[in-house]
## 1
Amino acid sequence: MSEFETLLVDERPDRLAVTLNRPQARNAINLAMVRELHEVCAELERRPRPLLLTGAGDVFAAGADIAELLERGRDEALQGINSRLFDRIARLPLPTVAAVAGYALGGGAELAYACDIRLATPEAVFGNPEPALGIMAAAGACWRLAELVGRSVAKQVLLGGRRLTAAEAERFGLVAEVVPGPELAARAHALLDRMAKSSPAALRLTKLVLDAPGAHPVADDLAQAVLLESADKRERMTAFLERRRSS
Ligand code: COA
């Protein structure tokens, strides 16, 4: 991948680890970062791999860049600058993990909500202070957060200005696990290691079916039909059975 201005990318054969890297602005998401994250998405759509997203320093991301937001108007809102990016991230073929150290506020929180799984340090804080700036959280929080933690807690965050600590986020199911800062990256990579052992096609179809709205037994059956016919499934199951026979 090309050199980035706002991201650090650790590209490996079985994953991409991307660090939001504008520490001087607490990793605030500006247009350059949006553009660069679209490039990351394009790469992952071309060559599907799990994605690990994290923030440089002791912050995940302090939101959309407020200096840019100040100058944005109706036309920019209708372009869905952040919402379309976060939707694209949510629809990436293979799982996405956000490793959140410190603040994930505003658009930073929405970016974390768009990932499939979140890990956090004890210092992590999730919040959507947009109304205090005269705007709303319009890049997915109004529905994604409600899906993740329920409408009651989502309303406390979005309307009541409640900030969720890491422990609260874990209790509400927003965060899978709270991990001390120095262990966060290793723990997140261990999660991706587990994913890397699974069949990419099985993960991809599971994610598609899981994220499809409503009940969809036909989609489940169709996805399974594809997987049951794969050579990869035959190899994996045969290896399992042969291991048992030889032990
Ligand atoms: N957009 C643009 N710049 C931001 C920013 C944002 N969302 N968040 C922080 N910055 C900048 C600050 O303006 C400051 O710039 P400066 O050094 O040129 O003055 C720099 O990042 C450091 O911020 P500071 O507030 O001094 O850091 P902190 O460690 O004391 O506090 C936060 C961190 C995240 C609590 C605080 O920066 C904050 O509240 N940010 C805004 C959060 C927000 O409202 N997000 C919603 C946006 S929709």
Note: The pocket of coenzyme A is lined by residues 25-26, 28, 62-67, 103, 105-107, 129-130, 133 (CB under 6 Å).
## 2
Amino acid sequence: MTRLLIIGPPGSGKGTQAVHIARHFSIPAVSTGDIFRTNVSNETPLGVEAARYLDDGALVPDDLTNALVKDRLLEADLQPGFLLDGYPRTATQVTELDNMLASQSKRLDAVVELRAPDSELEQRMLQRAKEQGRKDDTIDVFRRRLDLYHNETHEVVAVYAGRGMLVSIDGSGDPGDITERAISAVEKFLAGGVKP
Ligand code: ADP
């Protein structure tokens, strides 16, 4: 019954780490970015609406995003636990998530924050642009997403830090080492609230 969030800037390897951490705790990883991208490529009504925000490196409006997460959190596979990747990203989304969980009498166990210097994030984004060809992996869009992270999502990190739930991980270096660091820090935290 583990409920986790993972927060990190664009290029921090958040999606990759989410999959490994979730596997370790035997919970599904739910990425709002992946859900939006799937909807965009399938040209669903949500995808058509969300595409322009994704392409611009802007946040999808809170009402659309909150409705999507609200539905997803009610699905059967997430009842035993989950790792949310990419949500919440704004203070409003934090409040919404609080309400969604309260209405199901559930609470979060820990929030993983991946940290890495901007210069390393930019290098990784350029690499990913070559490998995956994501439309939002261009230097201008990346910088916009990074600015948004520092300006908006920083607030989300501060809220969870204030609640004593934040487990901050050094997200630079080898991806396998980062996974190990993250898993052992979360386990320690869950066992006794010991922060790394
Ligand atoms: P990254 O961490 O590299 O920014 P994500 O896959 O998490 O990538 O998100 C990609 C895009 O999806 C974001 O730039 C944004 O447009 C949209 N998105 C994802 N999650 C949210 C959210 N919680 N609120 C608003 N927009 C979101």
Note: Residues 62 and 103 are 19 Å apart (CA to CA).
